[in-house]
Amino acid sequence: MSEITIVATLTIKSDFQAPLLEALKKIVDSSRAEEGCYQYDLHQDNRNPMVYVFIERWASQEALDLHNQSEHFTSFAQFTKGKVESLVINLMHKVH
């Protein structure tokens, strides 16, 4: 088993900031409760309040796969459709 880090940068459309922020907070709380989740934090860019960054750490690819298939994650993904300008997901591993 090898730990996986995700850095996901989400730029939301300004018309949807309030409802999306609530959804972002809910996905953090639900994800933190999952087995294999070591870290699931949400950050907001200091210069552009429409940019949010998730920093996630998972015990394994299997834990990440289960997260991606979870009801709360799939519902969140559906909810964000049409409300996001861009999404960049970086799958990483710790070097040092």
UniProtKB/TrEMBL annotation:
Q: Where is the signal peptide?
A: none
Q: Name one GO cellular component term.
A: cytosol
Keyword Oxidoreductase carried by entry: yes
Source organism superkingdom? Bacteria
Q: What is its EC number?
A: 1.-.-.-
Report the SUPFAM superfamilies cross-referenced here.
Dimeric alpha+beta barrel
Give the UniProt keywords, A-Z. Monooxygenase, Oxidoreductase
- Which PROSITE patterns does this UniProt record tie to the protein? ABM
Xref: Pfam families: ABM
All residue ranges annotated as the ABM domain in the record: 4-92
Supply the Gene3D superfamilies for this chain. 3.30.70.100
Gene Ontology molecular functions:
monooxygenase activity
Q: What is this protein called?
A: Monooxygenase ycnE
Q: Which organism is it from?
A: Leminorella richardii
Q: Which gene encodes it?
A: ycnE
